[in-house]
Amino acid sequence: MSLDEFRTLVARHARPDTTTPIEGLQVAKVERPAQPSASMSGTVLALIAQGAKRLALGDRVYEYRAGQYLIASVDLPVTGHFVGASPEHPALGIGLTLQPDAIAELLLRAGPGDLPRPGTGALPGIAVSDAPAEMLDAAVRLLRLLDQPRDRTVLAPLVIREILWRLITGPQGGIVRQLGLADSSLTHVARAVRWIRDNYRRPFRVEDVAQLAGMSASAFYRNFQAVTAMSPIQFQKQIRLQEARLLLATHPTDVARVGHRVGYDSASQFSREYRRQFGVPPSQDAARLRDAAGPVTVTLP
């Protein structure tokens, strides 16, 4: 059965840094439960071989388990953790980075009638589905190539294209296809997401970011909310707080300066919003981060 072999191969090839010799492929193994941690999702396919992971984006919560995949079509601020992982029953899975150029090439090669007619409006930036047998089979063949260095360079890109095709033609194909379309609603929202991430310290008017994204203010707000499950201002706040937490891990005694550095003029507002996001005030969280032995870093969304 593909899922059994998939699980065996992931367990064998998992490394602490999750990287592999195949570009864009990561293999993850988590042996202990951890507190939910904030990260950026990346544009990725995450396929679970064993265990389960829970992920929150804005007010949406996703859970996916063995034989299911999560697709993220925009690099979004998420909070997640593996559920019930243990040394006896570790969570196992792979992550595959989605490249818009590769998706665009497959869309161009598709014949008439091969793909559903595109809908209107933006789709969510994250979705979960059951992995079809064909996708699991391709994932197994991709992992087998880790043991076949002579064949890997030539065959791995072909198998990755097959996996992308299964995504494009699958139940979440609309989300994936938008990645390869230069003028999709997702592309416009992704442009705004990148701008906010790069300029998260700066205040902005939604109308100005909408203009940068090439949309009217009303269409931009509606599509941004559909993709990210947040308003643009809420999105900026998530980025600021995530960055603040990273800074506090290395500067635990400089809370006020960290808040100012990520864009907060008011120390009390920074403390209030930080506590709402992470459950404790920044000073207490900084002490916890300093004393911790070190979180498990897993790049699989």
From TrEMBL:
SMART domains: HTH_ARAC (SM00342). Keywords: DNA-binding, Transcription, Transcription regulation. Residues 190-288 form the HTH araC/xylS-type domain. The keyword Signal does not apply. It comes from the Bacteria. It holds the Pfam family HTH_18. GO terms for molecular function: DNA-binding transcription factor activity; sequence-specific DNA binding. The keyword DNA-binding applies. InterPro entries: Homeodomain-like_sf (IPR009057), HTH_AraC (IPR018060), HTH_AraC-typ_CS (IPR018062), Tscrpt_reg_HTH_AraC_N (IPR009594). SUPFAM superfamilies: Homeodomain-like (SSF46689). This is AraC family transcriptional regulator. It comes from Phytohabitans flavus.
